[in-house]
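Quick one: Phage transcriptional regulator, ArpU family from Hespellia stercorisuis DSM 15480, structure tokens please.
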Amino acid sequence: MQRIQDMFINMEEVAEDAYKNTELLLSQYTKVMFRIEKNLVDIDYELYAEEGTHLKEMLYNLVDFDATAEKRRIQDKILNNDMNLCLLEIMRDSLLALRDYPKNGQLYYRLLKYRYFEAGNTNEDVMLMLDDMPSTTYYRNRKKAIRLYATMLFAFTRPEKVQNKMEELNWKKSGSKSAVNW
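--- reply ---
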């Protein structure tokens, strides 16, 4: 309990490297989402060309998935996308946790959502979306929002969720005769 109280006291104070890493991770969100969507389209195309069936149909039969090299490659791509989706889900969960933070949580939520979770918004766009916020106020709040988000991301995400997903993926991979040690 004391650990949780200590985290709340120092919530807005995270190490500079955690801040930079979180800022970098946030900047990659829409790119990763785009890549996942593109991969799914590519997988669907490859599967249709190879088997004459679409990805959605193949997913219903995943348990009976054939172990040919081509199909294992497609399955590996799907599993990789699943892991990326898990990361993005954790990022969204952390954003929602930030929204509920009592001190400026709503503002920080909107700032990060507009800037990093919605594609194409520049800092200037977000300033306008936040009631024409002055740039000095915006950048000060942005820094605080990223620091608080870093705390939410690294301290308040559910580690068991990540562990369960890793175990699930590991089980699927080992069952497909192409086991990879994570």
